[in-house]
Description:
This protein is an all-alpha fold. It contains nine helices and no strands. It starts with a helix and ends with a helix.
Amino acid sequence: MADKMTRNGFGVVLMSVWHAVITLVMLPTLLIQWLTGTPTTKPLPRRKMSENGQSTNGNADGPLGLTERELKMIKVSWDVLAEDKKSNGVKFFMTLFTIFPTSKDLFKHFKDVPLDQLKYDGETTKSNKKMVAHAMSVMYALESYVDSLDDAYCLEELVKKVAISHKPRGIGPDKFKLLTPVLHAVIEDLVKDDDSVDLETIKSGWTKLIDTVCDIVEKAQKEV
């Protein structure tokens, strides 16, 4: 019993000493606050918030140098394209062949097929089947790029596979660069009556994405 009381008494004394030390340490700070009426420590800076409520930590640029607005508009425009991948995929190639007629020669399976026979009006035919199939594969490739905007390593590997498979056909970064004006034209036609979208931001966002794709293609094809 006596030992227990001794230990308790020692604990009380130790606690009192600890409080005294803390008071002595904090006293100058407390006096300064009392005399000046201001805290001695600066408040933590407020984090900038994105439109979805997530912190950006003050960083204006997102993945691939995209602004948050560009990132959002890419996804918005892709949702429009993806509503009908088959029709919009063929529309993409028809636009490509219209703006850059010689690009049709790059596709051996349908380079000799007249444009009017490549059109897709909701029905795949013997004449346009290879075009429709290729258009679909391109649309799914683009979808994988959009889905990987926040994963640079994944995006790089996806593009590398395409770059390597296209090298034997002489399709390098200069040809991939043609995607930019074609995508701009197709998307503009699809959203031209929608006042809720920011077309210029959509274009700048897709330009940055395709520029990144071209850089990866160039690097990958040099390594093969």
